[in-house]
Amino acid sequence: MSSKQGGKLKPLKQPKSGKKEYDEHDMELMQKKKDEEKALKVLRAKASQKGSFGGSGLKKSGKK
Questions:
Q1: DSSP readout, the chain?
Q2: Tell me: the pLDDT tens digits for 9-47?
Q3: How far apart (Å, rounded) are the C-alpha atoms in residues 30 and 23?
Q4: Per-residue confidence (pLDDT) for residue 7, from 0 to 100
């Protein structure tokens, strides 16, 4: 071993994979997933505008 070489060796870079080809079923699932994410985003925006649920805040216990 030479004194120049120290520390971890860097792994060799992997070649980039090419574009994947999707069939109709895969495209349909991807579109469905995008639609669901869009719907969730809208619901989150609505929920953040309203504030807390119930409106009563934190419940306090009877113990003191």
A1: --SS--SPPPPPPPPPP-PPP--HHHHHHHHHHHHHHHHHHHHHHHHHHH-SSSSS-SPPPS--
A2: 888 888 887 778 888 999 999 999 999 999 999 998 888
A3: 11
A4: 75
Structure-token pair, residue 63: 């113990």
Count the residues in the chain: 64
Which two three-digit tokens encode residue 57? Answer: 């805040």
Residue found under tokens 């120049």: 4
Token pair 């934190």 in the structure block, residue:
58
Q: What is the pLDDT of residue 56?
A: 58
CB of 30 within 8 A of CB of 22? Answer: yes
Task: Specify the pLDDT at position 29.
Answer: 94
Phi-psi region of 59 (alpha: psi -120 to 50; beta: other; left: phi over 0): beta
